[in-house]
Every structure is written in structure tokens, then in C-alpha cells.
């Protein structure tokens, strides 16, 4: 581990602010210090200085982090706790100790370029209802490249997200393409599991060059994880990209500002919005999803007290589900209770991971609250779904 990070760890004044607000500590059943943000810094320091071994318990605690960056945001000593945990996962990986459920995902990626180890030919299964729209668009020259991402491409409950965005783009006569079986997982699971940059570079080179061949001017994705990787990681390992990268909420907000997208049809609804950690704290994008929601007539956006930079994770991040599925689920339920207490009718997400975790958590919650993706809501308002 590099010296600057050890210096960062030593900056920790043990004030406990991150400990009391860390969602995995608050929600987790164990109240051991090592399951909190502050405790993870201490574990990381001990490991970096070779004072403690990488025990099974240490690895489990490091993999109980949602990678939500809340701790880094609020630390008065400006310790980048989240970065420290990411690097500690890299140390665990270098020692060949990545936990089995996470290693299983990474092996899938190695073998098939998607986290589910499914046939790449099935990457367009999500498009069953929009086959005609996509008929002449797969790997064709276009202005906009739509990067779908593994979760939305392969998980049936999430196929509504790319379907909705496809319908919106078709309605607005946007000239777009998708890579289909040529799309490789963006590599985010490797990054979260601390894999080496050479892995990411190989993936970046493939995905960037495929999109570049199609002459796109703009790459869009509805997944904040993919967006973060395309925006920050690919330029670092590959070099400057020859096109702009946008999250779908930024793309829709731009269309609204340019008056190309106007929503007139709507019903009275009180909606809550989940700031995805990888879009908000990791990438600094809080306004675009709100611009889109506020453009819908009769929609009343109810903000939680802890929103934007202070928004709590939905529970779906950091590969926590792989090792601690009940922690992810319980965090989802806690957040649903918060939205329920604000009496919202609908919870809007702008992230497939948030959507999936809420969708699963809702099954065991006593509430009429529904969850929808932002693209789905817009497609419905346009009478496309
Ligand atoms: S908030 Fe910062 S200084 Fe305080 S315990 Fe956490 S890492 Fe240390
Ligand atoms: S990134 Fe989030 S879950 Fe992880 S230690 Fe920090 S506050 Fe806790």
C-alpha cells in the first residue's frame, strides 16, 4: 500500500463521526468497531503496516462496506475512508484472499465478459419488446452509443430500464446504437474488488474502441457504476475518450433544457428520489435527475432530510450482497421505512443496483410504496409503456 494512503489513515482523529453514520454499521447486527467506517480504517492501517494478518474476519468486515463514500464526505479530517477500503480490498486480492462469492463473480467476468457467466449472445434478451426498434441499430454507426450494462441486460426485473430508454430515444428520433454481444462488462466489479489496473485497461480498450468504430459523439448509460467507470477510470487507463459520456439522467435533462423532451401527461404523485452513491458522492451528479423529475407536471418531489451528499446508501453497493446478503436487504428495508414515513407514493431510482435492492427489499415490507426507474417513469408519462 502506498505511503500517502498510510499518511491518510494516520490523519484519522478517531472522532467517530463516520462510525455513527456508517450505514453498514448502523444496520449490521454486529456492533463490533471493525464493522464501522472508523474500524475499517484501523484494520486497513494494521494490514498496511503488516501488524495484523488478513484474517477471515478482517476480510468479511472489509467486504461489509457499501462503498457508499458517506464516510469520506463527512470526515472532518478529510480522510478518504472509502478509498482506503478500496485499496485494502486490492491488498486482499494481491494476497489471493478475495472471498469466494466475490471471486466467483470475477471468474465469471474472466470467462464470459459478464458477471452472470451467461452467453454473450444473450446480451439483447432485455430487448424482446423493442426488437423492431433495435433491428437495424446493433453495432451500427450512430450519434449516440447506449451502453446497457450487465445488470440491466441480464436481470429480467431490470430489463424495463433499457427498454424504457430505448422507447424514449426512438420517440425523439435519436440516432443511437447498442453493442449487443460486443459489449463487455464495464469492469466495475473488478475495481470494487481491488483488481489490478491491467484488467480494467483490457476491458476499457475493447469497449472504447468498439464504440469509437461506430463514430458516436455521445455515450450514455443508465447505470451509475458504468458511468463512473467510463467517466473516470477509462480515461485514466486508456486515455482521452473521443466522445462525451453521460448518465441517462444527464442525457434526459439536456433534452428537456433543449426543449426536445416535453412531458405533458402526468398524474398527481408524491415521489421520493434515491441519490445513487456512485452517481452522487462518487461523481458529483445530484441535479440532473431532479431536473428530469421537476419537468413532470403534477409530480411533487419530496426530499428526505438526508439527501444529496448526505443520502444514505440503498444497500445495493460495494458487492456487499455477495458476502452479506441480509445486510444489503436490511439496509434496503431501513431506507424504505424512511420513504414510507415521508408518505411518498413512489420511490424513483436512477440506478439498476438501487432498483434491484429496493425491489427485493419491498417484498418483505408492509407498505404500498412502489419503486420505479427514472427512465421507466418518463416512458410511462410519454405513454410509451
Ligand atoms: S470521521 Fe474521519 S477522523 Fe473521524 S473517525 Fe472517521 S475517519 Fe477518523
Ligand atoms: S463507504 Fe459507506 S458503508 Fe463503507 S465504511 Fe464508509 S460509510 Fe460505511
Can you walk through the features of this model?
There is one protein chain. By secondary structure, the protein is an alpha/beta fold. It has three domains: 95 residues, Orthogonal Bundle (Fumarate Reductase Iron-sulfur Protein, Chain B, domain 2), CATH 1.10.1060.10; 154 residues, Rossmann fold (3-Layer(aba) Sandwich); 121 residues, Rossmann fold, CATH 3.40.50. It is 48% helix and 8% strand. It has a four-stranded parallel sheet. The chain has a four-stranded parallel sheet with strand order 6-5-7-8, with helices on both faces. Helix 11 crosses helix 20. The longest helix has 17 residues. The termini are far apart. 49% of the residues are buried. The mean pLDDT is 95. Bound molecules: iron/sulfur cluster (SF4) (2 copies). One iron/sulfur cluster binds next to helix 3, helix 4, helix 6 and helix 7. The site of one iron/sulfur cluster has 14 residues, from helix 2 and helix 4.
Going across the biggest sheet, name each strand in turn: 2-1-3-4
Mean pLDDT comes to: 95
The CATH class designation of the largest domain is: Alpha Beta
β-strand percent reads 5-15%
Number of helices: 20
3D shape: globular
- What Rg, in angstroms, do the CA atoms define? 21 Å
Counting DSSP E segments of at least 2 residues, the number of strands comes to: 8
State the secondary-structure class: alpha/beta
- Small ligands present: iron/sulfur cluster
The CATH architecture name of the largest domain reads 3-Layer(aba) Sandwich
Residues in helices, as a percent range: 40-55%
Poorly predicted runs are none
The helix/strand order is HHHHHHHHHEHHEHHEHEHEHEHHEHEH
Number of domains: 3
Task: Characterize the main sheet.
Answer: 4 strands, parallel
Terminal CA distance:
50 Å
Stated plainly, the CATH topology of the largest domain is called Rossmann fold
Amino acid at each position: 500500500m502506498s505511503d500517502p494512503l498510510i499518511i491518510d489513515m494516520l490523519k484519522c482523529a478517531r472522532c467517530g463521526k463516520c462510525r455513527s453514520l456508517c450505514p453498514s454499521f448502523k444496520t449490521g447486527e454486529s456492533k463490533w468497531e471493525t464493522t464501522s467506517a472508523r474500524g475499517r480504517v484501523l484494520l486497513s492501517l494494521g494490514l498496511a503496516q503488516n501488524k495484523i494478518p488478513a484474517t477471515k474476519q478482517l476480510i468479511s468486515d472489509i467486504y461489509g462496506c457499501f462503498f457508499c463514500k458517506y464516510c469520506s464526505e463527512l470526515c472532518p479530517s478529510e480522510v478518504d475512508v472509502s478509498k482506503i477500503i478500496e485499496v485494502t480490498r486490492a491488498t486482499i486480492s494481491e494476497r489471493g484472499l478475495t472471498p469466494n462469492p466475490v471471486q466467483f463473480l470475477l471468474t465469471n467476468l474472466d470467462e464470459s465478459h459478464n458477471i452472470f457467466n451467461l452467453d454473450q449472445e444473450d446480451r439483447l434478451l432485455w430487448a424482446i419488446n423493442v426488437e423492431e426498434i433495435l433491428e437495424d441499430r446493433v453495432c451500427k454507426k450512430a450519434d449516440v452509443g447506449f451502453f446497457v450494462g450487465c445488470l440491466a441486460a441480464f436481470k429480467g426485473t431490470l430489463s424495463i430500464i433499457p427498454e424504457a430508454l430505448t422507447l424514449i430515444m426512438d420517440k425523439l428520433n435519436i440516432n443511437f446504437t447498442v453493442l449487443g454481444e460486443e459489449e463487455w462488462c464495464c469492469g466495475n466489479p473488478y475495481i470494487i474488488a481491488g483488481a489490478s489496473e491491467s484488467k480494467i485497461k483490457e476491458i476499457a480498450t475493447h469497449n472504447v474502441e468498439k464504440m469509437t468504430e461506430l463514430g458516436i459523439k455521445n455515450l450514455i448509460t443508465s447505470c451509475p457504476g458504468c458511468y463512473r467507470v467510463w467517466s473516470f477510470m477509462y480515461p485514466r487507463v486508456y486515455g482521452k475518450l473521443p466522445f462525451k459520456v453521460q448518465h441517462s439522467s444527464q442525457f434526459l435533462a439536456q433534452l428537456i433544457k433543449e426543449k426536445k423532451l416535453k412531458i405533458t401527461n402526468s398524474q398527481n404523485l408524491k415521489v421520493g428520489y434515491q441519490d445513487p452513491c456512485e452517481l452522487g458522492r462518487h461523481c458529483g451528479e445530484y441535479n440532473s435527475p431532479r431536473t428530469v423529475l421537476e419537468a413532470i407536471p403534477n409530480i411533487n418531489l419530496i426530499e428526505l432530510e438526508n439527501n444529496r451528499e448526505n443520502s444514505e446508501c440503498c444497500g445495493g453497493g460495494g458487492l456487499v450482497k455477495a458476502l452479506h446478503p441480509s445486510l444489503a436487504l436490511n439496509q434496503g428495508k431501513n431506507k424504505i421505512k424512511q420513504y414510507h414515513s415521508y408518505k411518498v407514493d413512489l420511490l424513483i431510482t436512477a440506478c439498476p443496483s438501487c432498483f434491484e435492492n429496493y425491489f427485493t427489499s419491498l417484498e418483505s415490507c408492509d407498505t404500498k410504496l412502489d419503486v420505479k426507474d427514472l427512465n421507466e417513469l418518463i416512458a410511462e408519462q410519454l405513454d410509451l409503456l
